[in-house]
Write a structure and sequence with these properties.
It is a single chain. By secondary structure, the protein is of the alpha/beta class. The chain folds into two domains: 2-152 and 306-339, Medium-chain alcohol dehydrogenases, catalytic domain (Quinone Oxidoreductase, Chain A, domain 1); 156-285, NAD(P)-binding Rossmann-like Domain (Rossmann fold), CATH 3.40.50. It contains nine helices and 20 strands. The strands form five sheets. Strands 3, 7, 8, 11, 12, 19 and 20 form a seven-stranded mixed beta sheet that branches. Strands 15-14-13-16-17-18 form a six-stranded parallel beta sheet, with helices on both faces. It has a three-stranded antiparallel beta sheet with strand order 2-1-6, with helices on one face. The two termini are 13 Å apart.
């Protein structure tokens, strides 16, 4: 089978590897679609994503969907031919957490994630024609949800987790700063969660166009000199840019809430944070998701349309070109998909 493998900075190859065989409690998934994430781009550009550095070649990809090709012993309830996506997180150990964070499995001290070099050996991702997956990580797609859209259940789950962290949004005005793929999905998740108005802000006009298509009621083009609104009740900071923190804090109403969903740098940065104190703003972190992938699939079944997010599609053999487009701000891309199999 073919797989998209990063060997080091700017060194991604389509390698041929043996087709895996499912063991007990596992299924073989014939992959059809994969979405390129910022971490995939980071491994390709820098040989690292955050503090996770490549030590060995790594199969990229954690936003994937396909069809079950074979079912191992003990993987009951799943059938060959079923369309499915994957919950890409596998907590290591007994899974016990302190009572104060019980159930928040995304905060386990060690979690193996598809397409991650955080641990050695690395955890290969799903940008391959086939991938063996633990049966408990399989999420069958609801009727009416294609495998193309199913590949976006993982990033939508990230957005829905951020929205859950904010609390009840019904009837509230929301700002989403940063209209990349996650930010635009936060727009959709906030509207799905009952927000009265969602304002999206970004430096990129094409990104703002995607945000509008995903449900934003208003947009703010920062590059054109437009300014953020004032007194928003809830803000989602989805850019991960330290320079954005000051303006977003100032935009948030006194006593309001900011959910930090954009990954911030691990090194020291300069940011204007005074309003956090004087405006008594609650600043909440949001990391990956727990089981919101089920909520994401339910929302898609109920009509949440992720298609405006998809701007480019490439065959598996063109993985290098796909990564280049995803990494280039001038390309106007939002979500770039790889066609991994299923009649390519």
């Amino acid at each position: 089978m073919r797989a998209v493998v990063v060997h080091g900075p700017k060194d991604v190859r389509v390698d041929v590897r043996p087709c895996p065989v499912p063991g007990e409690g596992e299924v073989l998934l014939a992959m059809e679609w994969g979405g390129i994430c910022g971490s995939d781009v980071a491994y390709w550009k820098h040989g690292a994503s955050g503090t996770a550095a490549l030590r060995h070649p790594l199969v990229l990809g954690h936003e994937v969907a396909g069809r079950i090709a074979a079912v191992g012993a003990g993987a009951g309830g799943l059938e060959t031919g079923q369309p499915a996506t994957v919950h890409p997180a596998e907590p290591v150990g007994d899974g016990r957490l302190p009572d104060r964070i019980a159930g928040r499995t995304n905060l386990c001290p060690e979690v193996r994630y598809f397409g991650s070099a955080a641990f050695d050996p690395h955890t290969d991702g799903g940008f391959s024609e086939y991938r063996v997956v633990r049966a408990d990580r399989i999420r069958p797609l609801p009727e009416g949800v294609s495998t193309e859209h199913g590949a976006l259940a993982e990033p939508l789950a990230v957005a829905m987790h951020a929205v859950h962290r904010a609390g009840d949004l019904r009837g509230r005005t929301v700002l989403v700063n940063g209209a990349g793929p996650i930010g635009s999905l936060v727009v959709a998740a906030a509207k799905y969660g009952g927000a009265a108005a969602v304002i999206a802000a970004d430096l990129s006009a094409p990104s703002l166009a995607v945000a509008r298509a995903m449900g934003a009621d208003e947009t703010v083009d920062i590059a054109a000199g437009e300014v953020l609104p004032t007194d928003v009740e809830v803000a989602f900071e989805a850019s991960g840019a330290p320079a954005a923190l000051g303006p977003v804090l100032r935009s948030t109403a006194r006593g309001g809430t900011i959910v930090q969903v954009g990954n911030l740098p691990g090194a020291a940065v300069s940011a204007a944070l005074g309003d956090l104190v004087t405006r008594e703003i609650t600043w909440i972190g949001s990391y990956r998701f727990v089981e919101e992938i089920d909520d994401a699939l339910r929302a898609m079944r109920e009509g949440l349309d992720v298609s405006p997010l998809i701007t480019h599609r490439f065959p598996l053999a063109a993985a290098h070109e796909a990564l280049s487009v995803a990494a280039d701000p001038a390309s106007g891309s939002s979500k770039v998909l790889l066609r991994l199999g299923g009649g390519e």
